[in-house]
Amino acid sequence: TIKHAIPAESIGLMFGGSGTFKSFIAIDMALHVAHGLPWLGKKTRQGTVLIVAAEGGAGLWRRIVAWHRERRLKWDEAPVYVVPVGLDLGADSSRVISAAEALNIQPALVIVDTLSQTFSGEENSAGEVSSYLRELSTWFRATWHAAVVVIHHTGHQATERPRGSSALRSNVDFMFG
User: What 8-state DSSP symbol labels residue 165?
Assistant: First the structure.
């Protein structure tokens, strides 16, 4: 999906502290993929994008429109779809798949914003975290052959790693901090 950064058919984590613009960076990345534009100097393969905006979905379309206005592109021509509500993706991923099928879309990139708003388990439980990531991988990565980027937070003290179980690291293909 993004050469030398985010492989197609993968699952990864983008993490940072509160206020570090994780969502803005993910939206920028997603819109570059939707338009097939280079992102941070790296080639992208154009494709449909699905954003699960469980955190901050209300202002997302304003950001998308502003991004397009700044680049003089038409926002309504971008293959971008938004789920603007919180879901338990451990249990409801199949509903997202059904909704996408009803719209006849097959995303190349799925942004999940954020883990904490889409995961009903315990972040410190290796088994529950692994199960959640396995569900996302089974439903989104495998069904659509998509890259899945899950946005997550750091802890208060340990800002160099994602908050929660070490299973986060061992169950993803890439991590951006």
Answer: -
Do residues 56 and 24 touch, judged by C-beta distance below 8 A? no
Per residue, the 3-state secondary structure of 97-149, as one string, reads: HHHHHHCCCCCCEEEEECHHHHCCCCCCCHHHHHHHHHHHHHHHHHHHCCEEE
**pTM attached to this predicted model:** 0.93
Spatial neighbors of 64 by CB under 8 A, at least 6 apart, are 27, 31, 75, 78, 80
Q: Which residues contact 160 (CB under 8 A, 6 or more apart)?
A: 154, 177
> Mind spelling out the 3-state secondary structure of 22-49?
HHHHHHHHHHHHHHCCCECCECECCCCE
Residue 58 CA to its chain's centroid (Å): 17
DSSP three-state, residue 9: coil
146: phi > 0 → left, psi -120 to 50 → alpha, else beta; which?
beta
Tens digits of residue pLDDT in 16-61: 988 889 889 999 999 999 999 999 999 999 999 999 998 766 688 8
CA 153 to chain centre: 13
CA 79/CA 48 separation, integer angstroms: 5
